[in-house]
Predict the 3D structure of the following.
Amino acid sequence: MSTALKPVSATNLPKTLIGAAAYFANPDTCFRFLVSLRWKDGVTCPHCAANGVTCKDVTFHNGKRKLWRCTGCKKQFSVKVGTIFEASPLGLDK
């Protein structure tokens, strides 16, 4: 899977709380938004700052999520690593 994602445009973001709740109810939208905020110039490894990463969908008992694997240090990471969301068991759309 390619690490290139369609960026979230600031022009189509919701302007109200009700609009935001509806817009971010989709987990893929939340994921794309967080990726575009965190990595404006492409995904880099939070452990070693390498640019070479691969992305895959991984299915767990509680659902599917996207994980990257660094080609430099070989560590896996998600979009939540190193953020305030890292320890949260809740999905990004909650």
In short: The first helix runs from residue 17 to 23. The two ends are 26 Å apart (CA to CA).
